[in-house]
Amino acid sequence: MLRILRKLAEDRAALVGLILILALIAAAILAPLLSTHPGDVTEFHTARRLSPPGPENWLGTDRMGSDIYSRLLFGARITLTIAVTAIAVAVLIGVPMGLIAGYYEGFGSNLLMRVSDIFLAVPQIVLAIAIAQTLGPSIENVILALSATYWPFWARLVYAETRSIKNEPFVEAAIALGCSPFRVMVLHILPSISSSIIVRTTIGMGGTILTAATLGFLGLGPPPPTPEWGRTIAESREFLPMAWWYAAFPGLAIFLVVMGFNLLGDGLRDVLDPRLRRAARHGK
């Protein structure tokens, strides 16, 4: 763990990504303490409606007169909850399915992969929109829509990685010693491919946040007056360019968070993937 942290510290881009992600987590956890107006993020204040950034409202106010800075902080909770839950469900479905399909051969394995191929054949955002539209706008339905469309990515990744190492000597030795298939998959194969899963999960967090914001922008996310970032940008369209801050700061928050996960994912890939490290040494 210390070696990984030292390697990340040497990668400036990955370090920036880690700082951005830690800032998101801190904003989500400490929102009531960091907020300048914690009690009115969902209330109307017509006297200060669409006020520009200033000493009282650092990032301005929205059409309800709510403080945008405070809404961004509480919106970070929603964003992080959606992303973490959706990715966790996708991993819990995709990883076991990929392991089983990759380890075994035959009709069952092919059937599992054909199911994932069906999901992958439809553009992920289109399928997420269709599911969210059918179920209705809510945080739970957004999580369900994202989980249902993301699990095939992990299933395909784990399937390919499992197939590539199932005939390695250490796996054959475990089988020769009498280890059960479950023990071989969980204690021998899964740790060997965990680096790929970690990298894919980190980068997938950024994609999940962006997709969740897209659903919110289309009106398929949490209903108003929930301080969700994508919905905030959608509400700001009719006030552009008069109230530029209304869309600019939520958009900047989404950009920084997605960039943070992508930068950290690239850094983890370079640190954890031994094949990339060998390629880099040979390149030198």
UniProtKB/TrEMBL annotation:
Entry GO terms, CC? plasma membrane
Q: Membrane topology type, per the record?
A: Multi-pass membrane protein
Where would I find the ABC transmembrane type-1 domain in this sequence? Answer: 76-265
What residue ranges are annotated as transmembrane?
Answer: 12-34, 78-104, 202-223, 243-265
InterPro entries, alphabetically?
BP-dependent_transpt_permease, MetI-like, MetI-like_sf, OppC_N
Keyword list, A-Z = Cell membrane, Membrane, Peptide transport, Protein transport, Transmembrane, Transmembrane helix, Transport
Where it mainly occurs, coarsely classed, is: membrane
Keyword Cell membrane on entry: yes
One GO process term, biological-process aspect = peptide transport
Domain of life from the UniProt record: Bacteria
Report whether Transport shows up as a keyword of the record. yes
* Subcellular localization: Cell membrane
Alphabetical list of CDD domains matching this protein: TM_PBP2 (cd06261)
**Membership in a protein family:** Belongs to the binding-protein-dependent transport system permease family.
The protein's name in its UniProt record: D,D-dipeptide ABC transporter permease
